[in-house]
């Protein structure tokens, strides 16, 4: 009996089915908890699901590579979803035309403030130069962050880690910051979330409102474009 | 739904092709995002089916970040030595970034309709 189970497990743990199912089940758990807490920002479904999957992998000694065999089908759709962000954005072009100046100003100021803070603090706290440079593109979506990191002497894999951590942090704290500042506009709240917490912030914005999500998607794209064009030059001139 | 999804995949493919062949610093899907805007502009008729597919994907955007997120949890060991410093730097800069972005956008947005206020933006 035990032997049979073991053989079955060995088979299942090597098929993509396991990783795929685990991802979806963990997501359902995350969503369920988020709903139970009436979408409290700290109960972020991505964060919950990440921890559920990581704990399951650790407990069952399945490697990340094995897990990814199945999870890659979900991961792949990130690119398609990025394209899809164009649609809600297109539907709100009129609103954008009216307020693009203030939004882009916010994006530039926020980006400069966050980048300067992260590098300054990291150096002040004694982080090595390569790691500090890897922190610079942390507010842009992970695939762009990796490209920038390579261009500015960082470690691309670390930058991806920092980008995702920033996304989770931003998605979890955005509401608190906006409420403290008394910002009610869903457009501004979504835009700031997308600008600073990129994809995970955008996913959070979509949980709250379609308007916030659309502007978050726009901010994510704009920040990615801007950072990939500007950061390599800034680093070359300043650092 | 399937029409729309095929359309999104085609745009992603085109974006990827453009990004690779021109060696652009921007990933293919972001180019696909721009291409989608152009398609919607030129062929408004295609909007409903593309919208259906896009809404389906975007309503579960959180799901798509899980595999990468798990990878991060597995990588945390690599930064353990500098962990505390990195955590502080990330947390503080994220709060600062969120606050500055939202505050500036909100403040300037309030006076946006008046074009003569443009000079004030530089202040």
Question: What attributes does this structure have?
Answer:
heterodimer; A: mainly alpha; 11 helices; globular; B: 123 residues; mainly alpha; 2 domains; extended
Low-confidence stretches of chain A: none
How far is the N terminus from the C terminus of chain B? 49 Å
The total strand number of chain B stands at 0
- Assembly type of the chains comes to heterodimer
- Helix % of chain A is over 70%
Q: Sketch the topology of chain A as an H/E string, one letter per element.
A: HHHHHHHHHHH
- Which chain pair shows the most residues in contact? A-B, 112 and 79 residues
Count the E strands of chain A: 0
Overall number of structural domains of chain B: 2
Radius of gyration of chain A: 20 Å
List the domain count of chain A as a whole number: 2
Major sheet size, sense and barrel closure of chain A: none
User: Mean pLDDT of chain B, nearest integer?
Assistant: 84
Please report which band the strand proportion of chain B falls in: under 5%, 5-15%, 15-25%, 25-35%, 35-45% or over 45%: under 5%
* Computed Rg of chain B: 21 Å
Would you give an account of this structure?
The complex is a heterodimer of chains A (239) and B (123). With 239 residues, chain A is mainly α. Chain A has two domains: 81 residues, no CATH class; 153 residues, no CATH class. Helix content of chain A is 84%, strand content 0%. Chain A is globular, with a radius of gyration of 20 Å. With 123 residues, chain B is an all-alpha fold. Chain B has six helices and no strands. The longest helix of chain B is centred in the last third of the chain and has 28 residues. The C terminus of chain B is likely disordered.
């Amino acid at each position: 009996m035990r032997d049979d189970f073991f053989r079955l497990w060995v088979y299942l743990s090597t098929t993509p089915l396991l990783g795929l199912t685990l991802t979806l089940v963990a997501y359902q758990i995350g969503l369920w908890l988020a709903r139970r807490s009436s979408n409290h920002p700290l109960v972020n479904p991505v964060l919950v699901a990440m921890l559920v999957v990581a704990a399951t992998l650790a407990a069952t000694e399945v490697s990340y590579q094995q897990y990814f065999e199945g999870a890659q089908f979900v991961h792949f759709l990130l690119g398609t979803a990025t394209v899809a962000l164009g649609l809600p954005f297109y539907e709100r072009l009129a609103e954008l035309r009216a307020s693009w100046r203030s939004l882009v100003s916010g994006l530039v100021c926020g980006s400069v403030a966050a980048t300067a803070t992260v590098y300054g603090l990291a150096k002040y706290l004694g982080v090595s130069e390569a790691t500090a440079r890897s922190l610079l593109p942390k507010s842009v979506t992970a695939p762009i962050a990796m490209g920038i990191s390579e261009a500015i002497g960082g470690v691309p894999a670390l930058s991806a880690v920092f980008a995702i951590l920033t996304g989770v942090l931003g998605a979890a704290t955005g509401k608190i910051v906006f409420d403290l500042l008394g910002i009610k506009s869903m457009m501004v709240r979504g835009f700031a979330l997308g600008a600073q917490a990129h994809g995970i912030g955008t996913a959070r914005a979509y949980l709250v409102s379609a308007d916030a999500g659309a502007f978050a998607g726009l901010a994510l794209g704009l920040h990615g474009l801007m950072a990939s064009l500007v950061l390599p030059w800034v680093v070359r001139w300043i650092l | 739904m399937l029409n729309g999804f095929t359309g999104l995949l085609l745009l992603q493919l085109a974006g990827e092709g453009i990004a690779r062949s021109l060696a652009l610093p921007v990933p293919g899907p972001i180019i696909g995002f721009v291409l989608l805007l152009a398609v919607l502009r030129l062929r408004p008729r295609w909007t409903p089916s593309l919208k259906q597919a896009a809404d389906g994907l975007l309503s579960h955007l959180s799901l798509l970040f899980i595999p990468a997120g798990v990878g991060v949890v597995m990588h945390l060991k690599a930064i353990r030595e500098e962990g505390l410093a990195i955590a502080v730097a990330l947390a503080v800069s994220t709060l600062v970034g969120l606050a500055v972005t939202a505050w500036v956008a909100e403040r300037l947005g309030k006076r946006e309709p008046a074009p003569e206020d443009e000079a004030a933006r530089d202040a």
